[in-house]
Design goal:
With about 190 residues, this protein is an alpha/beta fold. It has 7 helices and 7 strands, in the order αββαβαββαββααα. The protein is globular and about 45 Å long. It is found in: Membrane.
Length: about 190
């Protein structure tokens, strides 16, 4: 509920109705099945310092949320802009007329990455909300992530879809999209 109130206020203040912005909600996680949700940023920071919470997927997929710049977020009091980087997959609040998720990416893998890439290609500004946050709770692995981990064919198929998507981005956005083709090679 607090996220909703803060996001609503930010949507108005940042003039999202008339601008292309993707508001990033910093993501954290806990390894505990029971957690008293922090009622403030100060309480969340305390839980981070105590090791009750961690930045989202820090131990398995740092690249997915690193551009959020959690060190800056700790002390931020105003929204701040971050740049797209390869494999960036933050949770965002966007206008309903933004690009839809690419339907090639169902199940596990690359749905958020492709969406953020498309937003970047369309020149959305990525703005981190300084007082908003979400917490991922532990749960059993999904059917699709289990397939991804255990089935080489699944991984090959996802790689093919990813390459096809990057080629489509290049064709659609031209020279500006070359960074998406070369991102993994840098």
């Amino acid at each position: 509920y607090l996220l909703f109130l803060f996001a609503r206020k930010s949507i108005i203040q940042l003039d999202m109705a008339n601008t292309k912005k993707a508001l990033i909600v910093p993501a954290f996680e806990t390894l505990r099945y029971r957690l008293s949700f922090p009622k403030s940023k100060a309480e969340l920071l305390s839980m981070l310092d105590m090791g009750t919470l961690f930045t989202f997927r820090y131990h398995v997929w740092t690249k997915g949320h690193a551009p959020t710049n959690f060190a800056k977020w700790r002390t931020a009091t105003t929204p701040y802009r971050v740049e797209w980087e390869a494999d960036f997959e933050p949770y965002v609040v966007v206008r309903k007329d933004c690009p839809e998720y690419d339907r090639r990416f169902v199940g596990f893998g690359w749905n958020k990455v492709a969406h953020i890439m498309e937003l970047d290609a369309q020149e959305y500004e990525f703005t981190v909300l300084p007082n908003a946050y979400m917490i991922h709770m532990p749960h059993a692995p999904s059917f699709d992530i289990t397939k991804f981990r255990s089935n080489k064919q699944y991984r090959i198929c996802l790689k093919t879809l990813k390459e096809e998507f990057q080629q489509d981005m290049s064709r659609h956005y031209g020279f500006a999209a070359l960074k998406y083709l070369t991102a993994e090679n840098n």
